[in-house]
Specification:
This protein is an alpha+beta fold. The protein is built from six helices and 20 strands. The strands form four sheets. Strands 5-20-16-12-15-14-13 form a seven-stranded mixed sheet.
Length: 404
């Protein structure tokens, strides 16, 4: 059941009898582990900065006796910045909907009134809608902290966008693509055209560049089906129906073949990050993965590696742990992680950053002007993502993310 846009009334927000169950998961483990919407740091501008520096490589660095003082040497600092992005939503409920708590909708009758029945699930429609909107904002923040692309606009015609951890990691990246090819395709037949392409039936692939193909996305994987020497189709599931392109795929579109995740890939990423100074606190070092690759990691580290599976609580989030060459590390599921990525984050470096609005706070509910037979509430907050130095994190990219 989809939500509605605009004012909620008795016809669009019907009451029902019985317990109320939420269908959409609202867990936000990355946000929770980094401080949540009640922790974090405070900014005093839309752009916030932090500094990094490094030390020279260690050496024996000896001196002979009697020399004058050596040449002076200083360490250079660098700056990293991100922005707070605006989260702004509105809830609008009619007076009638708020008052008609005894009116129920049920199969076979449009407006039944059930005497003696008390719906304890939703006692105040307006308050309940505000609560759900706050959950949706938390989900949006979680998604942005992981997948956000950085935008620092020059004027107010473009929205600010905070940089997520995936985009931030540029040094310690284990790219596992098997093969790649430039492709085109027509929406009329939904066939990918690529002469002498390297792909086979049921290969998992993803777009790393995409022009056109309005129904397609670079954030998910596809299966190759109906494969011929110079063309093939794409499916969202193994053995499934061909996906509709939505529009023609034109030049500058690139497909890559994904590799199955292995423990060696994860260890290589860990080693790369550790050598750059990250992953020094195993209590907070966390491997973020989707459901499929969580199973892969359990099989390779626990089942095949004969390590005992354990669990612990980090920042209010229950996680499992695995033994690696770089300590006992957390493994956490995340619904918003791109299917082709596994991210390893030094979570002690991560924090939400809030821009408080004077007299209101950093995430507040405000009544809007009363202009009709309805109540409106606006929820507003400006939140950004701080992640320390990107070299303290790592990721494995272009790995399969679905059941094969």
């Amino acid at each position: 059941m989809a939500g509605i846009t605009g004012m909620g009334d008795t016809f669009d927000l019907p009451n029902f009898v019985g317990p109320l169950f939420q269908l959409t998961p609202a867990d936000t483990p990355y946000l929770s582990m980094s401080g949540g919407l009640t922790g974090g740091e405070v900014a005093d501008a839309t752009v916030f900065n932090w500094q990094t520096y490094d030390l020279r490589d260690a050496s024996q660095n000896t001196r002979v006796e009697g020399l004058a003082a050596p040449t002076a040497e200083q360490r250079v600092r660098a700056t990293v910045r991100n922005v707070v992005q605006i989260h702004q939503e509105t809830v609008d409920v009619s007076y009638t909907k708020q008052a008609a708590t005894g009116q129920y909708s049920d199969i076979g009758s449009a407006h039944p009134h059930i005497d003696g029945v008390t719906d304890t699930s939703v006692l105040s429609e307006l308050d309940w809608q505000v609560t759900q909107m706050l959950k949706q904002i938390a989900r949006d923040v979680e998604y942005s902290f992981i997948n956000g692309t950085f935008v620092e606009p020059a004027n107010n015609s473009t929205a600010r966008q905070t940089r997520g951890i995936s985009e931030a990691i540029v040094t310690n990246v284990e790219n596992q693509q098997v093969a790649t090819d430039d492709v085109t395709g027509e929406d009329a037949d939904d066939v990918v055209d690529a002469v002498a392409h390297p792909f086979s039936l049921n290969d998992q692939v993803r777009f790393t560049a995409l022009t056109g193909g309005s129904n397609l996305s670079i954030d998910r994987h596809y299966y190759c089906i109906t494969v011929n020497a110079n063309d093939f189709q794409l499916s969202l599931t193994k053995g499934g129906a061909a996906v509709s392109f939505g529009s023609d795929i034109t030049a500058t579109s690139t497909l890559v073949q994904l590799a199955a995740l292995t423990d060696v890939m994860v260890i290589d990423a860990l080693q790369s990050g550790w050598e750059d100074g990250g992953f020094q606190e195993s209590e907070t070092t966390t491997i973020w993965t989707n459901a499929y690759n969580k199973r892969v990691l359990t099989t390779q580290f626990i089942t095949n590696g004969n390590y005992r599976e354990q669990s612990r609580n980090v920042g209010g989030v229950n996680v499992t742990t695995i033994e690696t060459d770089f300590g006992r590390l957390n493994v956490a599921l995340n619904r918003h992680l791109r299917t082709h990525e596994v991210i390893i984050a030094s979570m002690e470096m991560v924090a939400p950053v809030f821009l408080p609005i004077p007299g209101k706070g950093f995430l507040f509910v405000k009544p809007l002007a009363d202009t009709g037979a309805n109540d409106q509430r606006m929820i507003y907050g400006e939140i950004g993502h701080k992640y320390g130095h990107e070299r303290f994190h790592a990721k494995v990219t272009n790995v399969t993310g679905g059941i094969t």
